[in-house]
Write a structure and sequence with these properties.
By secondary structure, the protein is α/β, with parallel strands linked by helices. The chain has 2 domains: 158 residues, Alpha/beta knot; 55 residues, Trp Operon Repressor, Chain A. The chain is built from 8 helices and 10 strands. It binds 6-chloroguanine (6GU). The site of 6-chloroguanine has 13 residues, from strand 5 and strand 8. Belongs to the RNA methyltransferase TrmD family. Its EC number is 2.1.1.228.
């Protein structure tokens, strides 16, 4: 998978060299290229923003550096006519979720346009949409200072779904959100710690009973923390498995 990230803080993306994503890069599964938006500003101060028309607080990112940076990225397509999906992280976007991560993991090329300040000149979205698929995507209902941390979260969620990135494919199936329920609680040795025993069922060796207990725990945990997920999960209630 090819990934391009455009930002005025390219160093912010340095953690993508670490851990699972770093290994995927070294293994050649991911071709990640980070671009400095200021390389596409041409004045002495490498300015990428200006005051908003109509007034208001803060600054707006100018169209010109963005169109040049995106043109530069498009010019490095591996095959003629190939285009990335352009993801613009922002709190005003469509909510990111596991289904979107899975869909994006099937696309060969993603580009992330990380905005700062109040946002990017609206004409950049129009310009880009004439050249590639554009999606404004939000991590949730809160505000970050810029798109970089959000882009990293989305990249991690997408890349770990690529074949060969997560060693144990089974660990992708069981986890929270795949299947619409939160994960069950986990325990490891010792069997008693701080006076707290591991639930007896997990030591029983009765795999059918363990499966029922884990499913029950997933339902209870989802009802307590994320009741909004229950209708979609197909769960009928606490005895839905019976
Ligand atoms: Cl994707 N970007 C920014 N800047 N803020 C956010 C967000 C994204 N998701 C939630 N808040």
């Amino acid at each position: 998978m090819r990934l391009d990230v455009i930002s005025i803080f390219p160093d912010y993306l340095a953690p993508l060299d670490l851990s699972l994503i770093g290994k995927a890069r070294r293994d050649g599964l991911v071709d990640l290229r980070v671009h400095d938006l200021r390389d596409f500003a041409h004045d002495r101060h490498r300015t990428v923003d200006d005051t908003p028309y109509g007034g208001g607080a803060g600054m707006v990112m100018s169209a010109q550096p963005w169109s040049e940076a995106l043109t530069d990225v498009l010019g490095t397509a591996d095959a003629p006519g190939e285009r990335p999906v352009l993801i613009v992280p922002g709190p005003g976007g469509q909510p990111f979720d596991q289904a979107m991560a899975r869909e994006l993991s099937g696309r060969g090329w993603l580009a992330f346009a990380c905005g700062r300040y109040e946002g990017i000149d609206e004409r950049v979205y129009e310009w880009a949409a004439e050249r590639m698929e554009v999606r404004v995507v939000s991590l949730g209902d809160y505000v970050l200072n810029g798109g970089e941390v959000a882009a990293m979260a989305m990249i991690e969620a997408v890349v770990r779904l690529l074949p060969g990135v997560v060693g144990n494919a089974e660990s992708l199936v069981e986890e929270s959100h795949e299947g619409g329920l939160l994960e069950y609680p986990l325990y490891t040795k010792p069997a008693e710690w701080d006076g707290r025993p591991v639930p007896e069922v997990l030591l029983s060796g009765d795999h059918a009973r363990i499966e029922r207990w884990r499913h029950q725990q997933r339902l209870e945990r989802t009802a307590a923390r994320r009741p909004d997920l229950l209708p979609r999960s197909g769960a009928l209630g606490v005895d839905g498995l019976a």
